[in-house]
Structures are given as structure tokens and as C-alpha cells.
Amino acid sequence: MRAAWYEKQGPAREVLTVGEMPDPTPAAGEVRIRIAASGINPGDIKKRQDSFGIGMAYPRVIPHSDGAGRIDQVGDGVPAEWLGKPVWCYGAQSYRPFGTAAEFTVVPVEKVAPLPDNVSADQGACFGIPGITAHRAVFVAGPVNGHTVLVQGAGSVGLCAIQLARRGGAHVIGTIRSPSEEAIAKNAGAHEVLLNDQDFRARITALAPAGIDHIVEVAFGVNIESDVELLKMDGSIATYATDNAAPKIPFWQMVFKNIRIFFLGSDDFPVEAKIAATHDLNSALEVGWQGFEIAERIPLSEIASAHELAEHPARPGRVVVTL
Questions:
Q1: What is the pLDDT of residues 58-75, one digit of tens each?
Q2: CATH level 3 topology of 130-267
Q3: pLDDT for 159-189, tens place per residue?
Q4: What are 259-271's pLDDT values in tens digits?
Q5: Which of 43, 68, 74, 152 has the greatest CB tally within 10 Å of its CB?
């Protein structure tokens, strides 16, 4: 099969190789997917760059955890009705060496979801990590029906969180960094969209005078103090990223409000939570949610360029590698 891989970490153009590898074969409980599109997530880039100083977990890595395509082989114990089905997958390179930047990938059957008829493979390749992270971030503290949920940021996770919280019955307030992001946050389902500037506190207090029930947080370090001020008694924060790796927290204010904080790493969510996320994401897509804007479609042969565009976007939207 044609595949992209790296055997050392570093800049995309220096370490990524495209060549031929043996076709994989699914083991018991696994399926093989002929990949049509492979999504690039920040985590894929961080692994390739060794941003956390962990080093190479495997001698050779095919990058990317998320992808979409069609199942062409099944392992023992997998129902034959999966054969030929269009699917999207997640976790292909989580605790495994070979991800979706290849003609074929092999994953456990519980890490695939049917690709709805109205959804392209390009879209399907983008939902794994951000969609499952967003679902956990919205619901980890419990149901949100009737609650006010603040979603910080309109990136891939933020947009999914807005849509899922809205479908979960919450009143959803989204924050953006620039006015150009307002339309995409509104299209994702936000009831109100606020620019995170010096007037933010006054405007959100006017919108939610009783306070916020739950916050989905992308920049924990910079926002934790204002988040705690905005939350109601027994409120909660679910955070999946931070601007500061060692942030200070307003401990006593959090104690007096009985604030709950959930730190979320998508690789290690409970299996049942991941499966519930795929069901809810597919339900949203099936009734017309448009998902993400696809900014770039780059062939596998130019995967280094795709990684560079994901690191330094030329325009808003997701980058996918096509096969």
C-alpha cells in the first residue's frame, strides 16, 4: 500500500516519507478500511514534533488518528455486514503505530462509525478526535438540558461542542477571537456569540445574570479566573487544552462555589463514552448539521505541505489528506 510515515520526529518536510508498505490485515475484532480521506489534528502534529518530549513510541509511525473510507476486510468475530460499508474512524494511531495516512488502516471495530449518506469522506475524516472530545466536554458533568453552557473558542472542538450542547437542550453561548468567526459559531448552533474582549464580562453577565452552569474550555490557564467568576454554585468546567502548562488556580473561590473541573484526554475516555459520541454526532449530521469547512484537500504525496498548512493555515477550515 501507499503510505506516509516518519521514523524520527521533527519538521514535517524533514521527517515525513511517502512510499510503499505491506498491506495490513485485520486481526480478530478489527476491520480494515480503504482510506479515502485522512484528517490532521493538532495532536498528530504534536506527536510528529515531539512537543511533549515523549519521543518515538514506535520505530515507524504512520500519522493521523482520524479518517474515513470503506471497510474492505473484517477480522474474526466481526459481523460480515460491515463489509463494504462507508465509515469514519478514530483512534487509529492511539496506542498503535499505524494511523490513517495510508491507503489502508486497521482499527478495532468499536472505533468505527457508519458514515451517513449525506456526509462526505472529507467531513467524516475530521470528526474523530474533535467530535469525541467535544461530546465528553459537554456531557462529562451530566445532562445539559435547561442549563446555560459557555463554549470557549470556535475551533474544531468548540464548534462540535456548540452543536452537541444545543442538541442536548442547553442555552449555548459561544466565544470567538475575531468577528470573522461569528458566522461559523452561529451556524454550529450558538444562541449568542461574544467576542472575548474587554467588554466580555459585562455582556455575558447581561445574557446570563444567574451565572453559567458549565464551561467547555480551550484555554484553561488564561481563562480559569474569569471562568470561576462566571460559574454558578456547583458549576463545572471541562477543559481539553491550555495556553499555560502550569497555570495558577483561584483555589478558595473554587472551593466556596464547589466547582468541579474535568481534565479531558480523548485517548483515554471510556469506550462507552466514545461510542455515545459517535451516535450523537451522526444524529446531528443526519438531520442537516453541515460540520466543518474543509479549507484544504491535499494528496498523500504532498503530506508535508498538508502538515505545514495545518500548522500555519492559509484560510479558515480543516486540512485533509486525500487518497
A1: 999 999 999 999 999 999
A2: Rossmann fold (3.40.50)
A3: 999 999 999 999 999 999 999 999 999 999 9
A4: 999 999 999 999 9
A5: 68
The three grid cell numbers given for residue 38, joined into one nine-digit string: 485522512
Where along the chain do its domains lie?
Answer: 2-126+292-322, 130-267
Phi, psi of 123 (to 5 degrees): -65, -45
Backbone angles phi and psi of 88, in degrees to 5: -120, 150
Specify burial of residue 142 (Cβ count, 10 A radius: 0-12, 13-18, 19+): exposed
- Check: CB of residue 232 under 8 Å from CB of residue 211: yes
Return the CATH fold of 2-126+292-322.
Quinone Oxidoreductase; Chain A, domain 1 (3.90.180)
Give the neighbor-by-neighbor strand order of the sheet with 231-239. 192-195, 171-176, 148-151, 212-217, 231-239, 260-263
Distance CA 24, CA 214 (A): 43
Transcribe 120-173 into DSSP letters: -HHHHTTSHHHHHHHHHHHHTTS--TT-EEEE---SHHHHHHHHHHHHTT-EEE
